[in-house]
Amino acid sequence: MIAGFTGSSRGMSHGQCHVLKLLLKHYGVTRLHHGMCIGGDFQANNIARGLGIATVGHPPVNRSKYCPCVCDEVRLIKEYLVRNRNIVDEAEFLFVGPDQPEYLRSGTWSTKRYAEKIGKPFHILERGYIECLETQI
């Protein structure tokens, strides 16, 4: 499965990272697309690569939060909203790693809303606790 990831530049909690790792394995993700920014994208990239999953970076035009992480492929530099839609469009499923409840003017949440609008399945990685997925997966 090809998955996308969108997350906060503040990064994911330990619990979110743990759940993402479990879900990447559970769904048999073979390729993970992300936005090449500091925080959540960097964490998701490292988790995926640690599991042997190929990563595809979609760098933003604004380099203030850019993270030059090691990716197997890198797409062309694009504006944030265009890049975020490309991540969703190239994936079969989207993982969302927010740092706070949904609000407007958030790249993470606008990416989730776009996935929802086009009918792309997604999973929100809740912050602050570790779900007991080991028994469910």
Describe the fold and architecture.
The protein is of the alpha/beta class. It is built from 4 helices and 6 strands. The protein has helices at 14-26, 40-50, 80-90, 107-118; strands at residues 2-7, 31-34, 54-57, 73-74, 93-97, 122-124. A 6-stranded parallel β-sheet has the order 4-3-2-1-5-6, sandwiched between helices. Helix 1 (14-26) crosses helix 2 (40-50) and helix 3 (80-90) crosses helix 4. It starts with a strand and ends in a 13-residue tail after the last strand. Residues 129-137 have low confidence and may be disordered.
What keywords describe this structure?
single chain, 137 residues, alpha/beta, 6-stranded parallel β-sheet, 4 helices, 6 strands, 34% helix, 18% strand, globular
